[in-house]
Amino acid sequence: MNGLPLREIPGDSVIHRLWAGTKLIAIGMIGILMWVLPSWPALGMVAVVVVGVALLAGIPLGAVPKPPWWLWALAAASVGLSTLVAGVSGGLVTARGVLLGLLVIAVSVLVVWTTPAAQIAPAIATLMRPLRWLRLPVDEWAVVIALCLRSLPLMVDELLTLRAVHRLRPHAPSNAGHPAAQLTLVDMVVAALSSALRRSAEMGEAITARGGTGRLTADAARPGRIDYIALGIMAVVLAVAIAGSFLITGAM
């Protein structure tokens, strides 16, 4: 998949200036809507929101991931098979599921594009603060999530590098007796694991040099007026999507 799906795209737009917790709350609101009411009007409204946010954030077209052709072929085959088995209604349900999956990915990627990784862990810790009353390890959970988010781009880069190296190596039939014939998927997995260990060691040293894992959740950022306005707009949009879904369902 071509593009830049797992790294922040620098900018100074309204979306970039939003508090990270506001974006996480918006994701939760959209996720609940699409889980409870995955209707066509709701999905269409979410798609409009995704496109509008991308335009406001100034996301360049070249950064949009380009899925491989076989992914589209698989989705089309799934819709076609569902249509043959369960009729037009079955095909529409499958198509709605495919669109739902794409929208979930798009919303998540938009947050990654417009939010520095260093702001996500403190926002998660702030949002989960009520759980501290139950003596749950909120800060530790936030640190784990932050480390995972920081590791994903590194692992993707390493896997792409390993794949390119694997393509450049000579190939030979399995019975040729040539060393190239012994290169299997296991070699790539072992190389990926060793690279992950090396990267994790480097990241651990960098975090220790900057003050330890406690610094990952230490951020004084809090929601402002623009965040409350954004959440209000999101609530209105979701209310319109719910009302439209019930109106169309009642008319049918």
UniProtKB/TrEMBL annotation:
<feature type="transmembrane region" description="Helical">
    <location>
        <begin position="44"/>
        <end position="63"/>
    </location>
</feature>
<feature type="transmembrane region" description="Helical">
    <location>
        <begin position="228"/>
        <end position="248"/>
    </location>
</feature>
<keyword id="KW-0812">Transmembrane</keyword>
<feature type="transmembrane region" description="Helical">
    <location>
        <begin position="99"/>
        <end position="121"/>
    </location>
</feature>
<feature type="transmembrane region" description="Helical">
    <location>
        <begin position="69"/>
        <end position="92"/>
    </location>
</feature>
<dbReference type="Pfam" id="PF02361">
    <property type="entry name" value="CbiQ"/>
</dbReference>
<protein>
    <recommendedName>
        <fullName>Energy-coupling factor transporter transmembrane protein EcfT</fullName>
    </recommendedName>
</protein>
<feature type="transmembrane region" description="Helical">
    <location>
        <begin position="20"/>
        <end position="37"/>
    </location>
</feature>
<keyword id="KW-1133">Transmembrane helix</keyword>
<dbReference type="InterPro" id="IPR003339">
    <property type="entry name" value="ABC/ECF_trnsptr_transmembrane"/>
</dbReference>
<dbReference type="GO" id="GO:0005886">
    <property type="term" value="C:plasma membrane"/>
</dbReference>
<keyword id="KW-0472">Membrane</keyword>
